[in-house]
């Protein structure tokens, strides 16, 4: 356990709850309620948490995202939100419910965050040269299924991991959200459920474009 996590926890229980692809570890401190989370990143990636701090503090004024309690080099401490990740075992056998919550939750997030007041450019992976937008919104930036929290009634309870939040076409989020369903709920096709809950029909060209960008693939000529 990192020293900073031990210092924050004191005598409270601590459990590691998530490891990301960068080697960062998120710890839950205390519980069952109130609880906190402490996200830690390797030194080489610590600047990404600085990016998340400013985005969370901005977005917290408009949407249900974690409140920043404290932060320092390579760590971020937030208050826990109610709910469980959409990939929690509670929802593993209910992919239709999860897909609906993710879609409805993204629509609520996009409607709540004001584009005109957003100080952040597009998510880092999106880049500048993109198709003409269908609709500019403040995108989550990493709209994979695990980053939607769900209440016990199956509705969206909030969003986490907003370190790449920024203004882009709504399909930058929708393309990745629908793609992630295949990773997390492989037994079935749930894309239509998610898009119906969001309130749009599939846009195959924009979906393909933003998935290529996410996967860092070249755009075909034409």
TrEMBL record:
Its EC number is 2.7.1.95. SUPFAM superfamilies: Protein kinase-like (PK-like) (SSF56112). InterPro entries: Aminoglycoside_PTrfase, Kan/Strep_kinase, Kinase-like_dom_sf. Pfam families: APH. One of its GO terms (molecular function) is ATP binding. It is an enzyme of class 2 (transferase). Keywords: Antibiotic resistance, ATP-binding, Kinase, Magnesium, Metal-binding, Nucleotide-binding, Transferase. Residues 135-210 form the Aminoglycoside phosphotransferase domain. The keyword Nucleus does not apply. Mg(2+) binds at residues 147, 161. The active site is at 142 (proton acceptor). The keyword Nucleotide-binding applies. GO terms for biological process: response to antibiotic. Belongs to the aminoglycoside phosphotransferase family. This is Aminoglycoside 3'-phosphotransferase.
């Amino acid at each position: 356990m990192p020293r900073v996590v031990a210092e924050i926890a004191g005598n409270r229980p601590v459990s590691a709850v998530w490891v990301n692809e960068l080697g960062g570890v998120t710890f839950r401190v205390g519980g069952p309620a109130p609880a906190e989370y402490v996200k830690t990143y390797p030194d080489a990636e610590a600047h990404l948490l600085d990016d998340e701090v400013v985005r969370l503090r901005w977005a917290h004024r408009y949407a249900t995202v974690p409140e920043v309690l404290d932060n320092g080099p390579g760590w971020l401490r937030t208050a826990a939100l109610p709910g469980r990740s959409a990939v929690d075992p509670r929802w593993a056998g209910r992919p239709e419910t999860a897909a609906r919550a993710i879609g409805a939750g993204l629509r609520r997030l996009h409607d709540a965050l004001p584009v005109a007041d957003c100080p952040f450019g597009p998510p880092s992976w999106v880049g500048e040269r993109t198709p003409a937008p269908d609709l500019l919104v403040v995108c989550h930036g990493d709209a994979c299924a695990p980053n939607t929290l769900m209440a016990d009634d199956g509705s969206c309870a909030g969003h986490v991991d907003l370190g790449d939040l920024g203004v882009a076409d709504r399909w930058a989020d929708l393309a990745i959200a629908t793609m992630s369903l295949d990773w997390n709920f492989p037994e079935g096709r749930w894309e239509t459920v998610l898009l119906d809950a969001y309130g749009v029909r599939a846009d195959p060209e924009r979906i393909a474009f933003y998935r290529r960008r996410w996967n860092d693939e070249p755009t075909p000529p034409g």
